[in-house]
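Task 17 of the worksheet. Students: predict the tertiary structure of the chain below and write it out as structure tokens. Keep your answer in the requested format; marks are given for formatting as well as content.
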Amino acid sequence: MHDDNRAMAARCTCLSLLLTLGAWGSPALARAQGSVNKSPAASSPVASGPAATSSKPATPAAGAGTPPAATAKGGAAASAKPKRKLPMRACPAKVPEELNPPPDVTLETVLPATGVQSYACAIEKPGEAPDWTPKGPHATLGDVNNPMGIHFGGPSWQAMDGSLVKGTKVAAVGAPDKSAIAWMLLSGSATGEGIFANITHIQRMETVGGRPPQGGCDAAHLDTRVLVPYRTYYYFYREAAPGETVRQCRGEPSKAAKSPAAKSPTAKSPTAKSPAEKPAAEKASKTSSQPGAAAKAAAGQSSQPASEAAK
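Model answer:
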């Protein structure tokens, strides 16, 4: 009996407590729920806050992450490589007219060469005395720190990229420096792809050294070979494109060739007369202008005695 009363009292106490909580529990619960919703840990996956992340990988923007070489201005693909800038050099102050290249070719590049000219002591023709005979050059093209190719017998020039041009002599002129090999103009036949692929003409100018020895070649030294150091510049030409500005190293025609037939400084005009001739001419002119003067002069001469005429 007592146990039943205690159980009833406990239930009443619990019911009273629930009723009391019901009066304020809803707002409190709402506030509690609001605080939970505001907690960063419970934020939605699509929230825009810094901590918000998406389970899907982000799609890159147009052009983002594209290598620089893949695009160019205007959105065009930069597939073509820029053309390599080749070495150039100013023309010599005076170029012999005989070495002028054809008018339709333009300068492609200028390369220095450093090496040797090879000579052999030989008899070129039966009955001739032995002499030093050229056997071809051996040279490096380009600067010491930037070699561009080689030059060897043929004569031939070969670039590092494999392109090659073989030359044929067109003209030669003695160098201003008498101790140096001649300046030359050559036509070229090119093969391969690269620097020399389109070369049609070559000038060799500004030579230093390279001439054979003055002596030492005789019957006792046949087949002897010598190497003589030399330096020069090779000017390489290709055909000019339509409308392209042509650049060449050319010599101007000489003044004698430009002017008409030269006049002799001692030549005189047909009407010019010496000072001694002028008085006689003037006297004759005056005499001839007087009527009957010529007849009187003739009559006077014929009337002279024979003795006077014979003096």
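Marker's comment: The mean pLDDT is 73. Helices lie at 2-38, 255-258, 277-289, 293-302, 306-310.
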